Prior knowledge:
Layout: E1 28-33, E2 36-44, E3 49-51, E4 53-57, E5 66-70, E6 76-77, E7 81-88, E8 94-108, E9 130-136, H1 137-145, H2 158-167, H3 169-177, E10 180-183, E11 204-207, H4 209-220, H5 225-233, E12 252-255, E13 261-264
Antiparallel strand pairs: 1-2, 2-3, 3-6, 4-5, 7-8, 8-9, 10-11, 12-13
Amino acid sequence: xxxxxxxxxxxxxxxxxxxxxxxxxxxxxxxxxxxxxxxxxxxxxxxxxxxxxxxxxxxxxxxxxxxxxxxxxxxxxxxxxxxxxxxxxxxxxxxxxxxxxxxxxxxxxxxxxxxxxxxxxxxxxxxxxxxxxxxxxxxxxxxxxxxxxxxxxxxxxxxxxxxxxxxxxxxxxxxxxxxxxxxxxxxxxxxxxxxxxxxxxxxxxxxxxxxxxxxxxxxxxxxxxxxxxxxxxxxxxxxxxxxxxxxxxxxxxxxxxxxxxxxxxxxxxxxxxxxxx
Length: 277
């Protein structure tokens, strides 16, 4: 499938600044940052982000250089940057972990003035009328298409999440700022998408920090980065009740469906056998 003449529709093309050809089920909306809408950017439910600020000469008598003006017909695709970190284990093994896609946005000074919480902060910038703010791809999608008050974590009743906005706007906005977003299939490299017609097809969701950890443990069969590495490399055996994580973790307890405990690792003891190894 080609989009705007591109063989790969997921790769940004900054040579084309017209309205982008839509992917199946794709829709663009003005980007919402926390709870504040900005007309500088538009984002789709696929996570494609476009800037509407076009460079323009300052004009005669206005000095050298250029300025940026808002043009709703100008669509410049923003390139997301992959953020990774290198993990080193006790045995010397290394693993490069993918964290997320992110970018830095240029926002107008005073954009958060009407915000009950963000309006209290002074954002430093060398520019007189703008400042920069970091945002991840999954945040851009969720804040714009899945507001926290309408799609709260499973443990928070919907009616209470909606009431919180009226009862205490500051706490409501804090919940959005601190909200944890879970990649349902645990593939942040690929799954940044919400379905506008059926929320059950969403690839990301709001969760509590505890829910995020528990879902990762269930998916990867353990709570360590090594478990994730084993799963992605194909070493994980779905037929086993546990993963042998003897390195670098010495002892692992893993609860299985029949409520028994499996123990593995050097020097570990089996409680079902009187504590004998």
